[in-house]
Specification:
The protein is α/β, with parallel strands linked by helices. The chain has four helices and three strands. The protein has a domain at 52-105. Helix 1 crosses helix 4. Bound molecules: S-adenosylmethionine. S-adenosylmethionine is lined by residues 11, 16, 30-32, 56-60, 78-80, 83, 104-105.
């Protein structure tokens, strides 16, 4: 298709950081709730010692929900520093139990 008017949705670190920063504390419509299908499937097939990495995890409650069910090897990956910090704040003293990696996958 010729022409320069095609709009591509923005998908970069700055875009996502802005989304999280401007919606601080609020749920975002695409966030996984604590009772998600992903959670059900992981519990069904994954023993508690499984290595679980949530890529593009944002502020999803998936990893905190697994932590509360005694999963021990959990990793959060997202390129938004704001999302990573927000998750760690919400975990309080439990924060060191989830490894957090900020970077572009
Ligand atoms: C639609 S949100 C979903 C967030 C989360 N999985 C949830 O269900 O609430 C997409 C997430 O992927 C992250 N993301 C997108 N591209 C990425 C990349 N190349 N590297 C790391 N994170 C990325 C964004 O920062 C954002 O947090």
């Amino acid at each position: 298709m010729a022409g320069g008017n095609r709009r591509v949705p923005s998908n970069n670190e700055t875009h996502w950081d802005g989304r999280y920063a401007s919606n601080a504390g609020a749920g975002l419509s695409w966030s996984e709730g604590p009772g998600s299908l992903s959670l059900e499937w992981i519990i069904e097939v994954g023993p508690k010692g499984s290595s679980i990495v949530d890529i593009g995890a944002g502020r999803s409650m998936l990893l905190p929900a697994l932590l509360s069910r005694e999963y021990t090897d959990l990793t959060h990956v997202d390129w938004s520093e704001s999302a990573s910090q927000s998750l760690q704040r919400s975990l309080g003293c439990e924060a060191p139990r989830i490894k957090c990696i900020v970077g572009d996958l």
